[in-house]
Design a protein that fits this description.
GH-type_carb-bd; 307 residues; Beta-galactosidase, Chain A, domain 5; 6-stranded antiparallel beta sheet; 1% helix
Amino acid sequence: MISMSEHEIAAAGYHAVVSATGAGLRVLRRGGVALTETWAPGTKPPLAAGLVLFPWPNRTRDGRFTFDGAAHQLELSEPELHNASHGLVRARDWELVDAGEAFVEQAVEVGGEPGWPFPLRHVVRHEVGPDGLTATHRVTNTGTGRAPFGLGIHTFLRAGDAPMDDCTLQVPASRVQPVERQRNLPEGPVRDVTPEEDLREPRGLDGLWFDTPFTGLAREGDGRARCWLRAPDGTSACLWTSAELGWVQVFTADPRNDKAYPGRGRALAVEPMSCPPDALASGDDLVVLEAGASWTAQWGISGVLPS
């Protein structure tokens, strides 16, 4: 059941709505202009839009992984493909920790689910201000042994009312993890982007399709990597990530693949991630916390409006 509970925050011309279910970012606007795709309150977010993916993002092959010598079997949330997909918390209601006019802080705990014995507490704070939306994630190992995890956020960007195919996309990534298309699992080692995959300069999205994990993100002087979706009228949505989120999954919702975004057809997800698909099994960029230790990461979205 999807909770009707959600939290509105606003400041400096930005307005956001964050759901209790999955800590999902349901709305982000600047001056009334949409910077993310949305969905009706109290309904299931289409294509996991806006939801937090934890304690792993993307897919775990056959739901199996080994950590510190012990084998684990996760529930197969994608049974038709025999994958454990997108973690444990996207359909759960997060507890309200604190809130104000411009921020909301929510928390969830995992540990004891089938295949997941690792106790972790995850607190996320969404806050809006002059620089847009900032989301701060803090994960703490509340158990007595080491604990692995990964984090992703299934963010769909939007540049006002412009159709996606009228926009350009820029992602400062030099490397890519190839995936096989049937199950969206890693296929071969990380490699340099090909010309067809290269998004380091703005590219028109008409005719392009992606479901691709990118890494090798170029960072600016403040340590952030920035991805840009730009509309012809100058409206732009910029998604940035801190160094702890070293991956970005670019996904095109497309009716031709039976994955249309309701009311929009083609739509674009740019998803910050700490690790690639199947990281629980491969160990690639997997976060491992000692007992009592914490880890923090940030991402955010700002908007540029036509002058």
